[in-house]
Design goal:
347 residues, mainly alpha, Heme Oxygenase, Chain A, 3-stranded antiparallel β-sheet, 16 helices, 70% helix, DUF3050 domain-containing protein, Haem_Oase-like_multi-hlx, DUF3050
Length: 347
């Protein structure tokens, strides 16, 4: 049973993963795409015009194997979601918030807000682990091969996020790694510690945010993700995790990295740079492409699930854009006050 040749525009991460699932393209295209004879990749018209959003035209060829046909069909559903997010991805890749970070004080403020996003990432991940692996007693094995593959993928991400190695080779979670990076630059960690202590004591997330006097921007972002978790919708959780985090984080972090390297002394925030580069490496090369298969396995060929996943993806990127918008407003306000004070200093 053959799948007609199809052209779709999608992100580089989706391209990479669809590419690994399809078959039959010419040898030159295969060589250009890592030696896998699956599809032809070409820059999208937007990318050719300088809109650096990582998009490509994806051209899949005939597939004879029924299982491969099904896999390709599911990957194309992922491609449709990614395509619908193109403008939001571009907005995040080029967000003016990044270029407003011109001093250590700016970086401190950014990190004091962003650390909450680092924390709630783990809640999304743990929800996936609870739903897609066995974390109860008595233990039961996955029921089919795809479940075992997804189980391994989720557990690998948990391993990296909960017990990765820092720049000195010490095991720690990425949240602890981030808090140590905050301490290095002199950012205020009292709020995030107060929040964690409150949650540990059984306080609800919403009340803990208030108790910790968390930044309003961070509170809004965290609560948007808590609503996804409270929905108990696995397609929404998987899509929020994949398209709202794994797929977009490398794009955002690379931009932040480049701006910081060009503008400030990296030795003063080396731990933060290590954190950024570690996520670029993991999410761009490993986690991102595999997370697309996670979405496909959760949604299967159910149109309602794909609809839920698509809406959740849009909402996730909207929440991230709002977070950056709010941080930008505060950075501009702070920088304006700083310039005003300088003008008042007598020469």
């Amino acid at each position: 049973m053959a799948v007609p040749t199809t052209t779709t525009t999608t992100s580089a991460a989706v391209t990479c993963h669809i590419h690994s699932q399809c078959c039959q393209c010419d040898d030159d295209a295969a060589a250009a795409n890592g030696g896998d004879s699956s599809l032809v990749l070409a820059p999208s018209p937007e990318a050719e015009e300088g809109l650096d959003d990582g998009s490509f035209r994806v051209v899949t060829a005939d597939v004879d194997d029924e299982e491969s046909e099904y896999t390709c069909a599911m990957m194309r559903e992922c491609a449709k979601i990614s395509d619908s997010l193109r403008h939001q991805r571009h907005a995040l890749a080029k967000h003016p918030c990044y270029s407003e970070i011109t001093s250590l004080d700016d970086l401190k403020h950014f990190m004091e807000c962003h650390v909450y996003a680092v924390w709630d990432f783990m809640s999304l991940l743990k929800a996936l682990q609870i739903n897609l692996t066995c974390v109860s007693v008595p233990w039961l094995p996955p029921q089919h091969e795809m479940s075992a593959e997804i189980c391994r993928f989720v557990n690998e991400i948990v391993l990296d996020e909960e017990s990765d190695r820092d720049e000195q080779g010490k095991h720690m979670s990425h949240l602890v790694m981030y808090i140590k990076a905050m301490e290095q630059v002199g950012a205020d960690t009292r709020s995030i510690h107060a929040f964690l202590n409150a949650v540990r004591d059984g306080t609800s997330v919403s009340d803990a945010l208030v108790k910790a006097n968390a930044p309003t921007s961070a509170s809004k972002f965290v609560m948007s993700n808590m609503r996804v978790l409270q929905s108990n919708s696995l397609p929404e959780i998987a899509a929020t995790f994949t398209f709202g985090r794994e797929d977009i984080i490398p794009v955002m972090f690379e931009t932040i990295e480049n701006i910081l390297v060009d503008g400030m002394d990296e030795s003063r925030f080396s731990k933060f740079m290590f954190y950024l580069r570690r996520h670029i490496e993991l999410d761009g090369d490993e986690h991102g492409p595999l997370s697309l298969k996670l979405v496909a396995s959760v949604c299967e060929d159910d149109d309602s699930r794909w609809g839920s996943a698509s809406r959740a993806s849009v909402n996730a990127l909207t929440a991230r854009i709002t977070l950056w918008d709010d941080i930008l407003i505060e950075l501009k306000r702070t920088n304006h006050r700083r310039r005003q004070r300088r003008r008042r200093v007598p020469s």
